[in-house]
Design a protein that fits this description.
homodimer, about 230 residues, alpha/beta, seven-stranded mixed β-sheet, three-stranded antiparallel β-sheet, about 45% helix, globular, DNA-binding
DNA sequence: CTGACTTTGTGCATCGGTTCACAAAGGGAT
DNA sequence: ATCCCTTTGTGAACCGATGCACAAAGTCAG
């Protein structure tokens, strides 16, 4: 497991762990701002809303960055997690589809503060093309490939209508993009080498509705017909 | 396991299954629109982007709604899943925080089409209060409790700045809201009886960055110092 | 009515993730 | 230097979810 103490770089961090690292990072940033120098797994776990054993196991996948009896040094841990997530480099992101959602994303501060740079906005609507949003000129979808290459975009955010998503997806994949964040409510088909993460706002609401219904005694009161 | 054949209403559908039901529903709606009357688990699974065995097992938790040798009747399945998710009733949703994201959500068609009704918009900024967005008058945060009661809101969407989220959360919980969709990048603390689902746009990007870095041979080329 | 064919529903092995609980490792006081 | 206290890192049991593979159950043709 642990070949050399100071070079843990174990390939294969569990997916569930990767998904939580940004959470820890957020909590750690907050602590750093408040001038906290050192934190125990217990405290950090609370701040991130997880169990402390889980947190320790997650961090142990990155290496032994804690001190027994003391805890973790906040700044150091921030650096290690950032590096592991690849946030020490600059990522150029293109947002395709500048409707309400696209605009919201373009203005979203959370991207910039994590090393992501919105490098291009692209849309098909001639009304929108040429507009300046969040300091960026909206470019035409016809120039999609050129824009991606010119700006060195490596991650594409799809905020187009559902009907347009697959076509745009195919085009960006064709020019070499391998990471896509999809907000359109469709299942994209892509080669295995491409990573797609999807966010569907209405799905989250539906899950809430399911639980809400249960709480309200829903399934009992509606034994339809019987 | 299966007490009575025609009344499966087994309490305790796995969480992973619940999270996929909206996906199936979306695929089924698409098929219904295209006039498809019947679908096999194989085809539906493809459309939803999952394995067919998983789909069958998921559906079996709701009951035996398929016909062996034939498949599932699209309309019927839409109804069963909708009912299970609680989408046959009308859910009044309030959006608190009418910044870029709040506006995007207010205008998002995916909510309405799934039985969710944006019943109120609330903000603290006097500039925004009184404005009409998506046909709704933006109300003042001071009236939060009154608005929630008056409109019969049962699900609250938090799209406030991080700093305001916990306070708003406390207030809506105090008036009886037990389902919250949180877009603010903070861990909310709530009583056990309250369901919180969170969406953090920057987390998804960070996960993509992690994988992108790996693809690019990242961790090998950056063995810093060593 | 019978037999071939299709597709569901599920038992079972497996896997990844979570949690407990504790030994190992460090700090600090005396 | 020794002992006690704190906290990490992890072995091991557990739990839920996944996916294979197949029997059961249905359709349809003849």
């Amino acid at each position: 497991m642990k070949s050399r103490p100071s070079q843990p770089r174990d390939r294969g961090i569990p997916e569930a762990t990767v998904a939580r690292l940004p959470l820890y990072l957020r909590a750690l940033h907050g602590m750093a701002e408040r001038g906290i120098a050192t934190v125990s797994s217990e405290d950090l776990a609370n701040a991130a809303g997880v169990n402390s054993a889980k947190l320790r196991k997650d961090l142990s996948h990155l290496g032994s960055y804690g001190t027994r009896g003391v805890g973790y040094e906040v700044e150091y841990l921030v650096y290690q997690i950032s590096r592991e997530l690849g946030l020490t480099q600059d990522w150029a992101v293109a947002i395709v589809g500048v409707g309400n959602l696209g605009r919201a994303l373009a203005n979203y501060g959370g991207f910039v503060s994590r090393g992501f740079r919105v490098a291009a906005l692209v849309d098909a609507d001639p009304e929108v093309v040429g507009e300046t949003i969040a300091g960026l000129n909206v470019e035409h979808i016809d120039d999609l490939e050129a824009v991606i290459k010119r700006r060195g975009v490596s991650i594409v955010v799809l905020a187009t209508p559902a009907a347009a998503a697959q076509e745009v997806c195919d085009r960006v994949v064709a020019v070499g993009v391998t990471s896509i964040l999809n907000f359109a409510p469709v299942v994209l088909s892509v080669p295995e080498t491409v990573d797609v993460r999807k966010v569907d706002l209405s799905i989250e609401l539906q899950i809430l509705a399911f639980h809400e219904q249960r709480k309200a005694g829903g399934p009992l009161m509606a034994v339809d017909g019987q």
